[in-house]
Specification:
The structure holds two protein chains of two kinds. Chain A is α/β, with parallel strands linked by helices. Helices cover 50% and strands 8% of the residues of chain A. Chain B contains two helices and eleven strands; from the N terminus they run αβββαββββββββ. Classes of the chains: A alpha/beta, B alpha+beta.
Chain lengths: 529, 167
């Protein structure tokens, strides 16, 4: 899949870079796609309630009631109808881009399969809700959709009498059909809400509301559009004639022309194959993941920080099982854990200052332990490299750190930048392993592990546990959140940081690596906890 | 980027999205059917005669049945196919046998066919056979029809209405 993902990802990152400049990372629509989808859904729901109040079920009444709200009550009914339509189109657009983006960022495989797979029925339900909605207008487009849809359904050998026979002639269609249609148009979105709820079950802190500024802008756009270009019908349906030319809503009905080219069976086969392909995509090929995080009860005091920070609901607290005098302990569900290491970064026992005992935090990744990170850090910084020495901590999913190393600059990669406990920054500077620490990771808003950048920013700013200690000179820390297209800017940021460090006086009271005794180390570790 | 420039950029983005909604929610138009053609739709759902005639049970046979299952006739479930012919002028649109539906072949035959035709005046001939006869037809219908462009003329069939119906 890489051959598809790579160009898509680069394309998204290029566009998102521009949107970052225009909207800023918080308002960037690309970082709010799912939330915008929900926002459009609520607009559709609220406007739908109003449209339903004015809607009349009946072969002629349906069309007439919609014409009334469009032209006689254009200032409210018409606007509501237009909001209903355009927000529905917005849902489809957001859904499609959201799906493509998650695919391109490789955020659909491994333990994330559940969210992806439960997204597949959402596609169908959204389309079904939209199609039944267009049907209710009972204009020429509705007639076309009704006949084409039922002829397609009739390909399935499940109906005693062809459903399309309900639309043979005006005398056959009766008012009760519109009651059924109204029921379907309400029932399908209600079911959609249930599936959306399931969709988010493995996502902690799901972002279901867009940033306020973005929401205001989006809603204002829809209202203005509804006033300038109100949704209109395409003339009353007449089953005695064929609606030869129809204005399709391509967001919902783009597949309908296929029914005129291919047989119903072929289109069913295509729809089934596409659905199946989407559903099995997370296993094409299966993702090989590192081992899940593991809890070390001897070092876990049940502080819940790892639970708070886990983006995947993979950690829960349970009653203590080892007799230690704490009420709870952390427990990892391996089927939810994606091995991002954010929990290890959040654990207050993850301090590299430990020497008397092994560096075994309360929770850690077996394959990429913090002890290994410390060992790599010490190995890479043992050679003196003059002034302006920098340790870069990066993440596996942003710009590769291996390309950032240069004279005086060493780089280490983590599964996520939030897997870095703030005490490591303290460790680097107080042990004089470098003159400054540079943090880089995914762009703000497109973090592969969702909250890596946000948690790191919060820890550095002392808004979130574990805090970066006050004693650390902030001018010796720099961060730059970057995607692949930002490589040049990242190089420049590191070079500028190196130059800045060279101009700074040497840090007072730093301890050369290995010079301090074990007792002092333990005291520092205790300070951190 | 200055704040004014950012707001201007946002306005441009919103304008672009709004333009996409306004445009693609109703256009480009799709020509679903040639506007200069008429449509003849042949759709009927009709059960042919049973493959074997029902047999009247003797008093002894009825007595052998469970009390709640007693009935005077014993009927096999299978039905015959129906034979249908639809001719529009000289053009043969349908001339075929349509089997009964259902696993036990006891359901009605289902026909749903669409034909694009040139508008004009035609002699429409409809014939249907739903018994085991091999010659002649059980139902016949002939009428001159005027077809206008985009007209949707439907050929239906209702036994209770006497056979073929044009809608």
């Amino acid at each position: 899949m890489t051959f598809l993902q790579r160009p898509l990802r680069l394309g998204f990152q290029w566009v998102e870079g521009w949107f970052d400049r225009i909207f800023g990372p918080v308002w960037n629509p690309f970082y709010n796609l799912g939330a915008l989808g929900f926002f459009y859904f609520w607009i559709v729901a609220v406007s739908g309630v109003y449209v339903f109040i004015l809607y009349d079920t009946g072969t002629t009444e349906a069309y007439d009631s919609i014409e009334y709200m469009t032209y006689e009550q254009w200032y409210l009914g018409g606007v509501m109808r237009s909001l209903h339509r355009y927000a529905s189109d917005g849902m489809v657009l957001m859904m499609a881009v959201h799906m493509l983006r998650e695919f391109s960022l490789d955020r659909y495989r491994g333990k994330r399969w559940f969210t992806w797979v439960t997204g597949v029925p959402i596609l169908w339900l959204t389309l079904a809700a939209g199609i039944t909605g267009y049907w209710m207008v009972w204009d020429k487009l509705a007639q076309y959709i009704a006949v084409a849809s039922t002829e397609w359904l009739d390909w399935l050998p499940i109906f005693g009498e062809p459903v399309a026979r309900n639309f043979l002639a005006p005398s056959i269609l009766d008012d009760r059909f519109f009651t059924l249609l109204t029921f379907m148009h309400i029932a399908v979105p209600l079911f959609l809400v249930v599936v959306l709820w399931i969709h988010l079950q493995r996502v902690s802190r799901p972002k279901i509301n867009p940033a306020r500024g973005l929401a205001v802008g989006t809603f204002a756009m829809l209202v203005v559009l509804s006033l300038v270009e109100p949704a209109e019908s395409q003339g009353p349906a007449d089953l005695a004639t064929v609606p030869a030319v129809v204005g399709l809503d391509w967001f919902y009905l783009a597949a309908y022309p296929l029914l005129d080219i291919w047989t119903g069976g072929t289109v069913w086969a295509l729809a089934g194959t596409l659905t199946l392909m989407l559903a099995v995509l997370p296993w094409m090929p299966p993702m090989r993941r590192a081992k899940s995080a593991e809890v070390d009860l001897d070092n876990c005091n049940g502080c819940t920080r790892c639970v708070e920070d886990c983006p995947y609901n993979a950690i829960t607290m349970q009653p203590r099982t080892d007799g230690l005098p704490f009420s709870q302990e952390a427990a990892v569900d391996p089927s939810f854990c994606v091995s991002c290491g954010i929990c290890a970064g959040a654990c207050p026992t993850s301090t590299p200052f430990r020497r008397a005992s092994d560096l075994v935090p309360g929770i850690d990744l077996p394959d990429r332990s913090l002890a290994a990170l410390r060992a790599e850090l010490e190995r890479k910084t043992e050679v003196p490299a003059g002034e302006g020495r920098v340790v870069v901590f990066g993440c596996d999913h942003a710009i590769a750190t291996s390309g950032l190393e240069a004279q005086g600059v060493v780089a280490l990669s983590l599964p996520c930048i939030a897997a870095l406990p703030p005490s490591f920054i303290d460790f680097v500077l107080s042990r004089d392993l470098a003159d400054g620490v540079f943090l880089t990771g995914c762009r703000e808003g497109e973090c592969f592990h969702r909250f890596g950048v946000a948690w790191t920013e919060d820890r550095l700013a002392r808004r979130r546990d574990p805090y970066l200690r006050n004693r650390i000179p902030r001018e010796r820390i720099e961060k730059f959140w970057a995607a692949r297209p930002d490589r040049r800017q990242l190089d420049e940021a590191i070079a500028t940081f190196v130059a800045r460090l060279k101009a700074l006086p040497r840090i007072e009271g730093t301890v050369a690596a290995g010079a301090a005794g074990a007792g002092a180390e333990q005291q520092k570790a205790a300070d951190h906890v | 980027m200055s704040r004014a420039l950012r707001y201007l950029g946002q306005a441009v983005v919103y304008l672009g999205i709004a333009a996409a909604f306004a445009t693609f929610s109703k256009s480009p138009n799709y020509v679903h059917f040639p506007p200069d053609q008429a449509l003849l739709k042949v759709s009927l759902v009709h059960s042919a005669q049973r493959r074997e005639a029902c047999r009247r049970l003797s008093a002894e046979e009825i007595a052998e049945l469970a009390p709640n299952m007693r009935k005077p006739l014993s009927c096999a479930r299978e039905r015959l196919p129906i034979w249908l012919e639809v001719l529009l002028g000289d053009r043969v649109l349908v001339r075929d046998a349509f089997p009964p539906t259902g696993f036990a072949e006891d359901g009605p035959a289902r026909i749903y066919e669409r034909f694009e035709v040139q508008p004009g005046s035609y002699s429409l001939t409809l014939r249907l056979r739903d018994t085991d006869r091999t010659e002649g037809y059980d139902y016949q219908f002939q009428e001159v029809v005027e077809l206008r462009p985009q007209q949707n003329l439907v050929v239906d069939f209702r036994t209770e209405s006497g056979g073929f119906i044009l809608r």
